[in-house]
Write a structure and sequence with these properties.
By secondary structure, this protein is α/β, with parallel strands linked by helices. The protein has two domains: about 130 residues, Aspartate Aminotransferase, domain 1, CATH 3.90.1150; about 270 residues, Aspartate Aminotransferase, domain 2 (3-Layer(aba) Sandwich). Helix content is about 35%, strand content about 15%. The protein contains 13 helices and 15 strands. A hairpin with a 2-residue loop joins strand 1 and strand 2. Helix 2 packs across helix 10. The longest helix is centred in the C-terminal third of the chain and has 22 residues. It starts with 5 loop residues before the first helix and ends with a helix.
């Protein structure tokens, strides 16, 4: 039986098999104590070993200069390859289906060059309404680039009146309705605002049934929820690394391209020399021959320093495994929901709009606020909580299983209870 006590929260932490990983991260301080950091969906914490990874690359540069591309245990020439296995494990892919490169929106545009190929008959993009602005801007600009009007070409999915999240059956129905006019389905994996985890497998299957390509922006999904991109037959996906993957502000992006496309050298793309056949890359000849797999979409050589930071976190994920992280994540969110519902028994004060079903959410819970929202957020901040405010009226709470604890959850809800608007 769940108890609303600090001792019970500490009992859960004591039983937590992966609690020690919290010590691998630097926790921001507030008045000499650890903050209650619940903002990993915006920027993950710094792994303590990042400093040493960066210093190692600085020493490598100092010692070898340009020869660092070919010398040492991790020569820069092949640096992106040192991230493949860990990235593939996190998203459920084969190693050749993933690559780390560029940044998120850059990669989204690169993928749309290949997978948004509209015609006068098939030109529409289906996406969720209220997607993160970068996705909205990318869709709008791509549609205009091809000569179409966004209001005609972009089909947005919205919840039913009086509801906060999308129903899978409504998504599928819209896909069927738009049918042969649809050139691309491009959605987030987890909605940044509500925290809803969409049924990516069903969406992909429905998209393929009408003959269209299906891609996902996994910025809020990767490292958060279980993914099986290869088995789900997703065409492509992109993600950032600075949220749940803890790779630092502006950290590098990841890309997934299903092997059926990665083995097709004729697929249109924007080319760069790092995507060219590795065996001939330094011959400097005309005629682009893409590497097989996602690597064939690379433009430039690796951003070594940011990838070094990224690798530290990826190695932690590889050590823990998504199964253990997901198990703890579900327990943490269920615990917070229970405690907030207990607060609401006397008076409905805090409305969680994230789906209640565990399979429809990750570790983010979004609390819809009323007019007291800004004051509540200011109160929490003054008490040492680092969370995220999103207009117009949501406080996003990310209870990250790698470094958050059940005591964090208890103390946060305790502060909610103390707030008096």
């Amino acid at each position: 039986m769940i108890r609303n006590t600090l001792s019970y929260a500490r009992e859960l932490d004591f039983k937590d098999s992966i609690k020690s990983y919290r010590e691998k991260f630097w926790m921001p301080q507030h008045e000499g104590k650890d903050c209650i950091y619940l903002c990993g969906n915006s920027l993950g914490l710094q792994p303590k070993d990042v400093k040493y990874a960066l210093l190692n690359e600085l020493d490598h540069w100092k010692e070898h200069g340009v020869e660092g591309h070919f010398k040492g245990s991790m020569p820069w020439m092949y640096y992106h390859k040192f991230l493949l296995e860990q990235s593939a494990n996190i998203v459920g892919a084969k190693k050749e289906e993933v690559v780390v490169m560029n940044t998120l929106t850059t990669n989204l545009h690169l993928m749309m060059v290949s997978f948004y190929r509209p015609t006068t008959e098939r030109f529409k993009i289906i996406m969720e309404g209220g997607a993160f602005p970068s996705d909205q801007y990318a869709m709008e600009s791509q549609v205009k680039w091809h000569g179409f009007a966004p209001e005609e070409a972009i089909v947005e999915l919205h919840p039913r009146e009086g509801e906060d999240t999308l129903r899978t059956e409504d998504i599928i129905e819209t896909i069927k309705k738009e049918g042969s006019q649809t050139a691309l389905i491009m959605m987030g994996g987890v909605n940044y605002y509500t925290g809803q985890f969409y049924d990516l497998a069903s969406i992909t299957k429905a998209g393929h049934a009408i003959g269209t390509k299906v891609g996902f922006d996994l910025a809020h999904a990767v490292g958060n929820v279980p993914l099986q991109l290869h088995d789900w037959n997703v065409d492509f996906a992109v993600w950032c690394s600075y949220k749940y993957l803890n790779s630092g502000p502006g950290g590098p992006s990841g890309v997934f391209v299903h092997e059926k496309h990665g083995k097709n050298p004729e697929l249109p793309r924007f080319a760069g020399w790092w995507g060219h056949n590795e065996d001939e890359r330094f011959q400097m000849k005309k005629g682009f021959i893409p590497m097989e797999g996602a690597a064939g979409w690379q433009l430039s050589n690796a951003q070594v320093f940011s990838m070094a930071a990224h690798k530290v976190s990826l190695d932690i994920f590889n050590e823990v495994g998504m199964t253990a992280l997901r198990e703890k994540s579900e327990k943490l969110t269920a615990y917070m929901i229970h405690l907030i519902e207990e607060l609401n028994r006397e008076q409905k004060r805090f409305n969680i709009i994230t789906p209640k079903k565990p399979e429809e959410r990750g570790c983010q819970l979004s609390i819809l606020t009323g007019k007291e929202g800004p004051k509540l957020f200011e109160f929490l901040t003054e008490k040492g909580v680092i969370a995220d405010w999103r207009e117009p009226n949501v406080i996003r709470i990310a209870i990250v299983p790698l470094y958050n604890s059940f005591e964090d959850v208890y103390r946060f809800v305790e502060l909610l209870n103390q707030f008096n608007s």
